[in-house]
## 1
Amino acid sequence: MTGQPLLEADGLHKAFGPTKALDGASIAIRAGEIVAIMGPSGSGKSTLLHCLAGIVRPDSGHVRYQGAEISAMTDGERSALRRTQFGFVFQFGQLVPELTCLENIALPLRMEGVRRREAEARAAEWLDRLHLADVGRKRPGEVSGGQGQRVAVARALVTRPQAVFADEPTGALDSLNGERVMRLLTEAARETGAAVVLVTHEARVAGYSDREIVVRDGRTRDIAREMEEAL
Amino acid sequence: MSIGHTFLGLLESGPRHGYDLKKTFDDRFGHARPLHYGQVYATLSRLLKDGLVELDGVEPGEGPERKRYAVTSAGVSDVELWLASAEKPEPYLQNTLYTKVILALLTGRSAADLLDVQRAEHLRLMRELTRRKAGGDLADNLICDHALFHLDADLRWLELTAARLDDLRRQVRA
Ligand SMILES: Nc1ncnc2c1ncn2[C@@H]1O[C@H](COP(=O)(O)OP(=O)(O)OP(=O)(O)O)[C@@H](O)[C@H]1O
Ligand SMILES: [Mg+2]
């Protein structure tokens, strides 16, 4: 791997009571690449993603974003990092039910201090881009699961983040809608140059990634790389 | 795949030369594995002998390229019967991966490693097919999806097997 990675975790440990969720996990994400994190249920995938995104603080180990140690940042610095550099897509329940879909997409811009008119104009561009023009005025409760996930993708990308964290983004969708969400997410990320950290246990979803890291019992393995090195 | 039935179906829209049949077949169904001319003419002469196609006209000159083939009514019935009958599902019971897993367990080698390596190889192909879908038309997507779902099934089996390795090892070595 050449050059400094965008995001790097090294030797992460994290326990919840007696449960070792991470037990020496390491991963490096380069700018603009799409990396799938795979592995069985309970292996520590989501915990790893949360540590990378500065949501969960590991018990030990390092997480660096563009070379800067995330755990050395103040809470304010960390939340600013999440707001301006990162985008998030989860399995469900991430949209604000009281706001329209358009307002949901505009929300991260509003939190950065962008004026309403400007924020909603930029949000509207994303609606078009993700083929959502007719759901802009609806509330999340009034759209289908697939549409809701595309709204979440738009909201994650509207600030043009450096990294998008997606935890089972298609977990609640059927094959056809899952495929649409993955296509739109990965195309938009490639266009904007965002890296994507994609947690999934579905191989067909991982097919959209550039490479995969496998987590097992809180430890990471880069098997494709090991195979290459063994040659 | 039954090349003969596929030819008969393609001939339903009108008589064609052997070369034309091969080209249409390759474009639609070949998926980077084109038919050999030998296969094409062997198939056509069998269909001719069985009365499922007939010569529609032979242009003067030499060589197989001069012949045009038309489907007969017996040929049309034959395609119809083929399309209406179910394909026998693959039983999938003779599987190299299964053999490798059991052998690894029997001989005290790491079955987990074997499964991890196989997963990486499957994912490599799945990525390639996913990329091909992005650049392809709907028919292309259909065949790639068919392959992707089958590879996905393999991978699910690999995951389930990996999760059961401890129990399996005890039973196999008992
Ligand atoms: N907040 C928490 N409190 C207590 N235990 C937790 C917490 N978060 C995770 N764990 C435990 O840590 C381990 C790893 O959990 P994690 O959510 O990272 O797994 P996962 O790989 O994302 O699983 P899944 O595929 O089911 O989402 C599990 O045993 C889980 O029960
Ligand atoms: Mg999880």
Note: The CA atoms of residues 213 and 226 of chain A lie 11 Å apart.
## 2
Amino acid sequence: MGSPVISARNVWKIFGKDPVGYLKTLQPGRSFEDIRADGYIAGVRDVSLDVARGEMLVIMGLSGSGKSTLVRCFSRLHEITGGSIEVDGQIIGDLSEKDLIELRRNKMGMVFQSFGLLPHRTVLDNVAFPLEMRGQDRHTRRKRALEVIELVGLAGREDYFPRELSGGQQQRVGIARSLAIEPDIWFLDEPFSALDPLIRREMQDEFLRLQAMLGKTIVFITHDFDEALRLADRIAIMKDGAVEQCDTPDQIVMNPTTDYVAKFTEEIDKARVVHAGVLARAGVAGEGQPVEAGATVQQLARLLVNDSRDLIPVADKGQVIGALDRQGALDILLKAS
Amino acid sequence: MTATTTEAATTAPALPRKTLGLAMIGLAVAMTLLHYVGLLPAWLHRLPEAIIPPFATWLDAIFNFVKDDLGLLALTRLLTDGLEVVLDATANLLFGKRRWPNIGPIPWSAIAAMAAVVGYYLGGWRMALLAGGTFVWTAMIGQWDIAMQTMSVLVVAAPLAFVIGLVLGITAWKSPSFDAVLRPVLAVLQTLPFFTYLLPAVIFFKVGPTAGAVATTVYAIPPMILMTTLGLQKVSPEVVEAGKMSGCTRWQMLRHVYIPAARTEILVGVNQVIMLCLAMVVLTAFIGMPGLGAKLLAMMGSFKIGRSFEIGVTIVLLAVTLDRMSKAWVVKLPEHFERGTPFWIRHKFLLMAIGAFVGFTLIAQFVPILSEVGRKQSWSQGKEIDTLIKNFLAIDLVQSITNSIRYVLNIWVLNPLRDFMLSIPTVAFVLLVSAAALLVAGRREAVLAAVFFGLVALTGWWDRSVITLYSVLAAVSIALLLGVPIGIVAARKEKTANAVLLACDTAQTFPSFIYLIPAIMLFGITATSVVMSILIFSMVPLVRYTIEGLRNVPDEMTEAADMSGATRMQKLWNVQLPLALPTMAVGFNQAIMFAFFMVIIAAFIGTQDLGQELQRTLAGTDLGKNFVLGICVTLMALTFDMVIMKWADDKKARLGLN
Ligand SMILES: Nc1ncnc2c1ncn2[C@@H]1O[C@H](COP(=O)(O)OP(=O)(O)OP(=O)(O)O)[C@@H](O)[C@H]1O
Ligand SMILES: [Mg+2]
């Protein structure tokens, strides 16, 4: 991975009367509740994380944990109270209004939790809106808008107004709009929440395809762990404005660093998350046919049960990287650990 | 004088409010009694002339300074020239005034047809019928020219007020400091009696349509500002953020995101602008602007009830049409066309409107009656209605009823009340008002009430102010006795409630002038008519808010009462009325504001109050006096407004409503 596209250092976002003054006098170690008792709300609390180019970072957490607020800080829809955020090597808080507009017009796209469609514009005009703001001519922007509308499966509804569409359709308009400018960095705030499972699945696939093809940097918020597992390179789990843990799905379920994360992932079927590659201990040589590093424990279930080897070699792209302990893998499969 | 009461109210915070209030009332009563037995020094009864500052002269000096020395007059005269060209142009188009562009008048049938198409577009056949019918009626009854004189000012003033209100509203929304300055100014502007708009317009702008247009515009601006600000503030944050993420510049944000998203509120503002413009443009009759208002004034003055009635109908029809059409526009949301819809269907209404306009303009060239309805051809039945009404009033029963109402009102209610109010010493009066404010609202209100009424006393127009107040209180009290029971009865059934509410809504759109017609019709040009017209006018909000208050009582509360076995009466007294009271208070407040407004219009009938003096100032150039009188009315109205609204808010908070 190259240099990070988004790099957040000690970011704070506090809501209240005089957030900056309050943050200055804030003693370290004060909890979310303490801050609330002082009459302020800590939307984001001392968050540091990097998002690499082409990476898909999924943010999870309970309602009100600050997910949307953090993403709004990344796109500077909120001015942060403390810390710094770099996007593409530029400190985003220092950008002039003009530069910020340029950045948003050319590099950033965002899908909003409650869609944020302009009520007075048709689907077509909503999707073409960012292009119109960029000053593209009517013909080009129409062509491009029709393309993305087709992509999200709304062809034929171009002339509808938002209030004439269902929630899921509105959400897809929001997705299409954010896609219209082909952003490098893409913020998605629960983009599939209003879709039915079938379309949801389709959209996720479409998403992975786009991601593989275009290599966009994506920050994705969701409440749905399955969705997170399908999409995420890394998952950040938030609680009360702070990031509790930010790691690969395997690590989050295998090695939760806090009790909260452990509880959060308790219900998950780990066999579906953990990959052979993660279980492989380097330097240990197994014998016989190696298994693929990218396979999950669940996918290996039949082999794990039937095989008699203690150590099974794991190979990544034909190269053996170590061996996994069959008993340990079986424990995961049987939820023993 | 006011200083003593002010001090009393502020230096004794330890005293409970009630005791203090009662003490003040006691003091006032004592003073009044002393006055009756002749023991009160004269300077406590009425402020001696010597200490009354010459406010009017001071104000005149300020006006003159602004007008001449600061060169404001030169500026406004410059504006006048521009406005005059526009007004002349609309006058030429609508009723053929001989000015540029010299192509008018447009045949009435073309305008009526176009109005019908617009009505059809906005609200279907019913609206088309209403809009077209209004204009057909106006032409047929022979009032086309005067109606168009009114419209020619309206079509200039309303868009002007819209644009200025929109710009100021946006500025106020952008800049909190501007907003902070603007808000109190708007509050005062909205309680200023309309007369205070008229005279400055005459002085700074030319007499006639120009002054009328300026006064009308200024009068209609405040609600547009408020609605614009409200709408912009209500735009959903995610829509704003979506705009930002699309890379909008500030201007693009405003133009493509905020204003379209605030469409509803802005259009509600447009509706209010149109209705206020209509109300005011009719009133500009007082500064000699020709049109429907002037004609009505003249007809009522010479007791030509039949013609007055017909003009009244025209005004009402115009008001209802404009109101319904602009309201239909508020709720009319764009709808999509299917792909491949041909051009002529997409623009069906535009083509229809153009077609109707061109078609009737052409036909009118050959069929003169469609172009202009002559005096002889009109269907006016003024004389006949006059005879009809005279005969009706001459019926013994009717006559005895109107006479006895007039007699009872005058001898038993109105005159004694007026004499009593006038007999209270000024100082005692101020004390009483302040005490009432203290008991009903709070200390702050008590102090302000004392200051406001003290100022009224200092202007030297005390007696006339008291008479004004008396008319207002008398009329509103009677309206209360009639309106509240009507509201209670109407609120019982959903259907009647809706019907009455609709009637109230419609009645509220009528320009105030209209309310004089039935009063004069029944009681002639007498003091009773004044009270009657105020009474009818102020009953509308009372009925309306009583119904709304009762209807908004939460269901679980009435259900709880039902389950406790309350009778209908018990439920009404113990549950519904107490909970509806704050809302009813808002209606009461509005009734009082309406009454202050109407009392001045009614002065035209001949009264001895501030309105009469105000009307007199209009004939001259007494700007200072005009303002002093206007401020007297404003101060009294503001006192009521402040006290009642504070009470209603407190009550609401205590009842846990909202
Ligand atoms: N503009 C604001 N003003 C004040 N408080 C805010 C604002 N925006 C968010 N908050 C507070 O910040 C906290 C985090 O809100 P946020 O919207 O980021 O939650 P979330 O994790 O996105 O929740 P959800 O899953 O429900 O969308 C909440 O307590 C919220 O009340
Ligand atoms: Mg959220």
Note: Chain A has a mean pLDDT of 90.
